[in-house]
Design brief:
Blueprint: E1 8-12, H1 25-37, E2 42-45, H2 57-71, E3 77-80, H3 86-95, E4 103-107, H4 116-129, E5 134-138, H5 140-143, H6 149-158, E6 162-167, H7 172-181, E7 187-190, H8 196-201, E8 206-209, H9 211-214, H10 216-227, H11 231-239, H12 242-247, H13 255-263, H14 280-292
Parallel strand pairs: 1-2, 1-8, 2-3, 3-4, 4-5, 5-6, 6-7, 7-8
Helix pairs in contact: 1-2, 3-4, 4-6, 6-7, 10-11, 13-14
């Protein structure tokens, strides 16, 4: 398969809700069109930013099918398919309708804090059962365990169905170790918007992005410059976005990005508990930044 279609930037898609808490499919369709029109390279469904832990399994399956149908082949689709029970992940692989998806994104098992050998065996089992290529997702701040560079490289060498990693450890030296020793074609993608250009400057392949939901056109300007090797210009372009990107995470993700999108008029700011909408102060900050930096 052509792994390069997952280079650049993928938008980690939100799940909009109606005021009474149901999935807002009309708003979801607007969001898909918005990021595609903003030149996003691909879409990632049912990740952290989608509030997936609050979605029932039938809702996840319906959302997955809706997103695939609405994209209709315009850009590649990566489907989130992870959990802290290996057998449950295998259930998802069997039960989800993965037609229209090009790969899956699978997070390190959370809460139960497996050893590095446990992480390896988990992903070996997932990769052996997945009908699609697998992108690993390392996010110790949410999962409670860091997958080391050595474990990532062991998986990359041993399991040809694993094609890359979304690295959200925040540890640039760990990312560099993966970059230096990865097998040919293994993708290293940032999981942190602010580290997009620094990682690509070091040889990384791109980002799975929260910010691309809210500011796709401006964010993609930065990514396109970095892909062209114009890193100083990419840094300069990101400078105009940096304060707004930082604000996206002040009250947690996806609280911030939903607040920004509400200010932009794209969606309502309804969250599912235990998450709550962004504060009045955060909303005021986005109103100011969006106007000041022309982020509409």
């Amino acid at each position: 398969m052509d792994r390069t279609k997952f280079a650049g930037a993928g938008a980690a898609m939100i799940t909009p809700f109606t005021p009474d808490g149901r999935v807002d499919y009309a708003a979801l369709a607007r969001m898909i069109d918005y990021v595609i029109d903003g030149s996003i390279d691909y879409i990632v469904a049912l990740g952290t930013t989608a509030e997936t832990p609050t979605l029932y399994m039938p809702e996840r399956a319906a959302i997955a099918r809706y997103i695939a149908d609405h994209i209709a082949g315009r850009v590649p689709l990566v489907m989130g398919c992870g959990g802290n029970s290996t057998s449950e992940v295998l259930d998802q692989l069997r039960e989800f309708d993965l037609r229209g998806a090009d790969a899956i994104l699978s997070v390190t098992p959370y809460y139960n804090k497996p050893s590095q050998e446990g992480l390896y065996q988990h992903f070996r089992t997932v990769a052996e059962h997945s009908p699609l290529p697998v992108i690993l997702y390392n996010i110790p701040g949410r999962s409670g365990v860091n997958m080391t560079a050595e474990t990532t490289l062991r998986i990359a060498r041993d399991l040809p169905n694993v094609i890359g990693i979304k690295e959200a450890s925040g540890n640039i030296e760990q990312m560099q170790r993966i970059l230096d020793r990865r097998p040919e074609g293994f993708l290293v993608l940032s999981g942190d918007d602010a580290m997009t250009v620094p990682l690509m400057r070091r040889g990384g392949d791109g980002i799975i992005s929260v910010a691309a939901n809210a500011f796709p056109r401006r964010f993609m300007e930065c990514v396109h410059l970095a892909k062209a090797g114009e890193f100083d210009r990419a840094d300069e372009a990101f400078g105009a976005l940096s304060e707004a990107v930082g604000a996206l995470f002040e009250e947690g993700n996806p609280v911030g990005v939903k607040c920004a999108l509400s200010v932009l008029g794209m969606i309502g700011d309804t969250m599912r508990l235990p998450l709550v909408p962004g504060s009045a102060q955060l909303r005021a900050k986005f109103e100011k930044l969006i106007a000041e930096y022309d982020l509409r």
